Amino acid sequence: MTLRTRLVGESVVVDVRGQIDVSSTERLRTTLVDLVNDVDCRLVVNLDETEFIDSTGLGVLVGVLKRVRARDGSLALVCGNDDLLRVFEMTGLTKVFAIHASVADATSSASH
User: Fold this and answer.
1) Distances from the Cα of 43 to the Cα of 28, 86, 103, angstroms
2) Is residue 88's pLDDT more than 80?
3) 109 with 100: CB under 8 angstroms?
4) Residues 72, 99, 5, 23: is their CA dihedral positive or negative?
5) Chain-centre distance of CA 20, in angstroms?
6) Which of 24, 92, 101, 106 could share a disulfide with 44, CB 3.0–4.6 Å?
7) CA torsion sign, 104 to 105 to 109 to 112?
8) % residues pLDDT > 70 (the chain)
9) What is the pTM (predicted TM-score) of this model?
10) Interaxial angle between packed helices 25-38 and 55-70, expressed in degrees from 0 to 180 and rounded to the nearest 10
11) Dihedral (C-alpha) 90, 92, 95, 100: value to the nearest 10 degrees?
């Protein structure tokens, strides 16, 4: 898994490439938690180049969402991958996360 962080408008976008699984979740968690602690909490996690996410990866995203909300921030996901989107749908997480089709949509969304 590779991570790239960039600023788009007022949002910090984290591009995730590869697989989010038990072997990579600690790195993802550390990156996201550090961002939550260091910046205004307006995060976008871009999963467009993510091939796979397991339950530990979903757990990391839920945990970071709780942290962000505690700081009155926001966390949006970008997911154009139908297989990944199906995972979020099957687990009911589409009701928990703001999921967008593109980074542009996520960074311009008022409810982000």
Assistant:
1) 13, 22, 11
2) yes
3) yes
4) positive
5) 11
6) 106
7) negative
8) 96
9) 0.94
10) 10
11) -30
